## 1
Amino acid sequence: MKKGLFITFEGADGSGKTTQLNNIKTFLNEKGFDVVVTREPGSLELGQKIRNILLHYDGVVADRCEIFLFLADRAQHVETFIKPAIDEGKIVLCDRHTDSTIAYQGYGREQDIELLKSLNEIAVNGLKPDLTMLFDVSTETAQQRVGNEKDRMESIGIEFHRKVRNGYLELLKENPDRIKLINANNSIETVFEDAKKIIIDLINRN
Ligand code: TYD
């Protein structure tokens, strides 16, 4: 059977990537593709429990505990949901994946990036996105879009979020074939047009 595609959506909180993911899903459905939408952390039942701790636990979460929680969620997600869907020929659109760990825990929390890359490898067990769309937005704009209702990660100060953005841009330099940059400062319509072009290009190549 023909394998599906695995596309990840990355960017800061407030980058608008989730809105665009849903727009892309509708667009691909209209073209007749079999599409599934998912997210990290927390797409499945066990993942929901992990997500709840990660985003809403109000006690201290040690940096390394946070890393393993994101990775535990990812390992479960890849094994029980993403890989089977790709094997069934579906296009999987995933809101955040391995690059979030490098950007947030690596660049943001300043944990060992090479170590995180190795841990990501263990969690994904050989899976790699066919394409990653990076929705890049200025940290100030992103923070305004997030507003006042912030979860545990969003509540970390603006300097952390600047480091996260910088981390994503470093990942882009390292992976120019896989990661495609989209200027998410633009209007929703313009961002959607840019995202569509990238998706169409990928589909034409497969
Ligand atoms: P979520 O509400 O899903 O945010 P968004 O809608 O912006 O994707 O919350 C996920 C949060 O977890 C977000 O702040 C990014 C963070 N995160 C990490 O720090 N590391 C990771 O590996 C992942 C997957 C997410």
Note: The chain has eight helices and five strands.
## 2
Amino acid sequence: MDFNEDVKYIKGVGPNRVILLNKLGIYTLNDLVTYYPRGYEDRSKPKNICECKNGELALIEAIAISKFIDTRISKGRTMQKLAIRDETGQATITWFNQPYLKSRFQIGKKYRFYGKVEFQYGRVSINSPVFDEIENTNNTGKIIPIYPLTFSLTQNILRKIIENGLEKVKQLGGLQETLPEYILKEYKLEEINKANQNIHFPKKFEDFKRARKRLVFEELLSTQLALLQLKNNNLTDKKGIKFDINVKMSDVINTLPFNLTKAQLRVLQEIDENMETEKSMNRLLQGDVGSGKTIVAMISAYKAAKSGYQSAILAPTAILATQHYNNFKNILDKFDIKCELLISGLTKKRKEEILSKLESGEIHILIGTHAMLEENVIFKNLGLVVTDEQHRFGVKQRTKMAEKGQNPDVLVMSATPIPRTLALILYGDLDISVIDELPPNRKTIETFAVSKRLEERINNFIKKQVEEGRQAYIVCPLVEESEEEDSSNDLKAVITLHELYQKEIFPEYKVEYIHGKMKPKEKDEIMTRFKNGEIDILISTTVIEVGVDVPNASIMVIEDAQRFGLAQLHQLRGRVGRGEYKSYCVLKYEGKGQNTKERMKVMCETNDGFVISQKDLELRGSGDFFGTAQHGIPDFKIANLFTDIEVLKLAQEVAVKIVDRDKRLENEENKPLKKLIKDKFTDRIEI
Ligand code: ADP
Ligand code: MG
């Protein structure tokens, strides 16, 4: 039984198609047969010709009543026509440039046609329909799955390949059941092979519903179980830290140059109470871009430091870490709290110095990037771990950091607002605090979506801003999604764009660029110069997506905005509008797709990250929760977190029940579950 066999061995898959399938994430037989449709077309119920409505998709069963007529219409183009009839009326079928279809039709024989109805001179007509002879059901006469596709792979081809894949699975004796018998029984779920067959090729709508129910349940249950396993791993019976109740957060708050918002104060109160109790804190702090999360982390770290504990502040990029470091120092230096910055690329000597001071306890707060996760980074008494922009980190990294202390308090910060009910379930192991208010005097960022053709006007607009003394960001198109921060293609793109802007468009201004592959020192230098106003226009990849704070920057242009997710656009846009100046975001886009237009519209209409992330989910699907997360919400193969919320709740209940009885899933009856989780999450979390 080998379901992991390469998809290239499946009938109908040649070298070219392998590449296309790989693009869809299909590498193995198992990937193939679990590549689920995104929708279905019911081509099983015929309509009478006289009942057809203009513009609808319809299936007609009718007899050919004319000869197949082939005419030339213009240079090299031909048109084919066929008249058909059922008991209720006549219709015309039209094709273009397909004279060879002639041999497929005979007068007096019955066929099935499926396509979009158009009225021509009051007569029912269908252009280029799919069809079958009445005794066949290749393309019609059944419910047809519609798959998400990639370039040049058609529905028909992929459907056929999946059919062959399912056939192969059958020959291999079927997929192994992933859910325990008792669960199938108790929740009335059908067995895996039936579900898998029916999710692709349901005979009736009810078949599909039952299949989907099972697969959704399985997906959500396994996620919930994985989360619970994770929680069990984190949660030992050991006690957490009780921070000093005599250390008052208000001592720092009173020295700040601004008043905290009510929401910030409330959240700090929640954290403070948490820190003072013995139970260790596991808290998610949500707040839209610019809501002021950093200061909350800083004040919490102050509390830890003055209570005699070290803090670790983990940021996803060196730029952000450096910025945090400077902010922390600005405020905490006067309290004799020692902050340090640990990012990769430091000299060996410098690094050793930091590591030894950390181990001796001389450093109170260590701020840095992934570099802090390394084994040789040893704290004397780590009491607080803060992860900024948690969606950029896996759960595993969060855990790894916490393991450097003895049950330290953990605060994860995220700008991806998700509905509270959902958050409670997805982050089952975390308490949640929300900053639901922006600091006063924030100006809304005016956003325009502009077609690429209007480039010149956009450039004039940038010019105007720069002339007024402001600065601009130009964000490079996303070339290829990649695991790394910046792929080498992104690099090329940023350099090309820089040449264009510096040499051709704005020779009179100082244009610079920044990308993730630069040495931390270089990045830092560029950001500092930008902050000091020595650079007018900064071309950047998405490295600036998180956190960067330059109040004088008032305009951001995002190239090829259609390629970015909404949540990401919102994050990027959050880089402007941070000062006293009216700020703008220009989304330069290409393409007329409905989806593109709708997405651009959402961005122009709202500045509310909550609305945007919800829309993003609806329009695009979600990111990946356990691994290289983009949005902070797990990417599900079949479940939909908005419509399947009831199943999600049920799955959570069931998961808790299972784990209550069998903490580590060691009972014989739960073996399939253990395997399921292992297979699915193995390289993401440790179970
Ligand atoms: P985010 O929540 O996106 O991480 P930051 O913590 O970077 O936001 O804060 C954005 C900016 O707002 C920073 O310059 C910060 O100093 C400032 N800020 C934070 N809280 C307040 C406040 N209560 N009033 C005014 N400015 C604030
Ligand atoms: Mg931030």
Note: Residues 293-294, 388, 547 surround magnesium ion (ligand 2) (CB under 6 Å).
